[in-house]
Amino acid sequence: MKELFKRISISLFLGANLCTILLLWLCVGLTYISPDTMPRLSLLTLAFPVFLAVDLLFIVFWLLFHARLAWVPIAGALVIGSYILDYCPLNFGSNDGESSDSTLTIVSYNVGYMRNDEQRAELLQFIKTIDADIFCIQEIGGYYFKKNKAVLDSMSYSILQIGTAAILSRHPFLSDTLHIDYPTRQNNSVACWIDYRGDSLFVINNHLESNMLSPEEKDNYTNAITEPDRESIKNSSRVLLSKLSEAIAYRGEQTDTIRAIAERQAGHSTIVCGDFNDTPISYTYQRLARLLSSAYRETGFGPGFTYTRRSFPVRIDHLFFSKDWTCTSCRIERTVLSSDHYPLIVRLSKKTR
Q: How many Å is the maximal CA-CA distance in the chain?
């Protein structure tokens, strides 16, 4: 009887482990399918870290209770190993030193509209301190640049802006702003050519479709997690599912547009960055990562959350670059607290031919 119970238990746990692996693989498979075709199912990719954590726990479980089956969760993870490293890179000893004359320093930062003077002053101080070649900023009004024009001029920054997305550059702009037309409710992207030391550099700064969750809805979701009750979970889940699925469908089409524009620049230096509102296990990230290199994937360590407010720890700010560059460092500046995002600071070096 005891042996029968043991066999049944092992079978049940093995079945649960296999189901977890299949869900992991499904999350990866969904990154190949545009979410506008099946938006609600595409939201399953958000659960990738949960499924991964459960699979890792199964490794420990099998080692403790039935070591011969430990290969099952290990094999399940190895099959999608590159995607796990997209989500949580393990680059040891990456170079995060100061920039040199041959290094391009570029910052991507969603500043969150800056609601008060203290936040605006912190952004200006951050721009002065980092001393970057290019700043790609999202969720910023044109009034900010008008108010601080003298300071930015003294730092040799020129400005291009469409809507709430702007590019600040110390290198000359080679053309007017490129208009990017994609379906959206209020988000936008801005693109241009920049003369970087005699070479043309194409830059796209993006703020892809937001989830449109109000502060109250985010608070309700947080409360449902911290103080759960049946009604609060039901209400918050319904609102969350509806808004997330609508936004992810928009982002699928927007990503296809950005990818098509980047493809047309094949053979030219290209940087695509910004607030993509999608994690590394998503159609948005993977569609771009299959064309360009990801800065954090190349030099980062750990999950690297760029948005951690209101119980939503995720990495949704990314920077991609063409193969003629090498990423020497990519760090998330967690000391800047004026926004609900952290700045992404990337240093790139041009490969020698």
A: 83
Sequence letter at residue 226 = T
d(CA 281, CA 173): 34
Query: Alpha carbon 47 to chain centroid distance?
Result: 15
**At a CB cut-off of 8 Å and minimum separation 6, what does 33 contact?**
42, 283
Average pLDDT per 10 consecutive residues for the chain, totaling 353 residues: 83 96 98 95 95 97 95 98 97 64 90 92 95 96 92 95 94 86 92 93 96 68 54 67 91 97 93 98 98 98 88 91 96 93 96 79
What pTM did the predictor assign? Answer: 0.92
Going from the C-alpha of 266 to that of each of 105, 325, 337, the distances in angstroms are 22, 13, 37
How many of the other CB atoms lie within 10 Å of CB of 182? 20
Which stretch of DSSP H or E encloses residue 172?
A: none
User: Which CATH class for the 103-350 domain?
Assistant: alpha beta
Q: What letter represents residue 56's amino acid? A: L
> How far is 315 from 299, CA to CA, in rounded Å?
15
CB-facing half-sphere around the CA of 299: CA atoms within 13 A: 22
Contact between 316 and 305 (Cβ < 8 Å): no
The span from the CA of 338 to the CA of 258, in Å, is 29
d(CA 98, CA 140): 28
What is the residue extent of each domain of the chain? 2-87, 103-350
What strand order describes the sheet that includes 317-321? 188-196, 199-207, 269-275, 317-321, 293-294
Residue with tokens 């640049």: 145
130 burial level (CB within 10 Å; 0-12, 13-18, 19+):
middle
The encoded tokens of residue 104 equal 């391009």
